[in-house]
Amino acid sequence: MENLLLRLYPTAFRRCKVCEKVRSIENFSISRHDMMDSKGNKYRRHECKDDELKRKTVERIERTIGRREAIKSDLACTTCGYSKKTHPSFSINALQFHHHKNNKSHNVADMWNMPFDRIVKEIGKTKVLCVRCHAEITVNKKEKTK
User: Are 67 and 116 in contact (CB under 8 A)?
Assistant: First the structure.
């Protein structure tokens, strides 16, 4: 039945490359780019707006954020020593990853949708600093370049 729909109405239906179900073209998001298909219609993505897919994506993102937070809970500021052991009101939000060399690919905080091994690799390029120490280093670096 699905293949028949695709053959009879190739512009009205499409097979999702993720869930592999044939769905109406309205179930596929329009690309943000001003691209057109061969018939002059706005280009649509090949992944449907399936709720199951969205749920799996949200779960993966939450799992990645949880892993990153677990890593941060065991770390300490390399400058002043701020950590779970030294402060009873410790917050992982007060720790930041500082790229002290010019080898930065991404901000670690913006990598919530990337594979966890890439996040760990990027964390390896950084020094862990508390917010205060990070601000001081950043301001001193800017003053030196003036």
Answer: yes
Residue 146's identity, in one-letter code, is: K
Q: In whole angstroms, what is the distance from residue 6 CA to residue 106 CA?
A: 41
The one-letter code for the residue type at 12 is: A
According to DSSP, the β-strands at 13-15 and 95-98 are unpaired
Query: What span, in angstroms and rounded, lies between the C-alpha atoms of 33 and 98?
Result: 34
Q: Can you tell me the distance from the alpha carbon of 117 to that of 111, in angstroms, rounded to the nearest whole number? A: 11
Q: Report the predicted TM-score, pTM, of the whole model to 2 decimal places.
A: 0.56
pLDDT tens readout for residues 100-138: 888 888 888 888 778 888 888 998 999 999 999 999 998
Give SS3 for 117: helix
Where do you find CATH 3.30.60.130 in the chain?
2-49
Fold of 2-49: Wheat Germ Agglutinin (Isolectin 2); domain 1 (3.30.60)
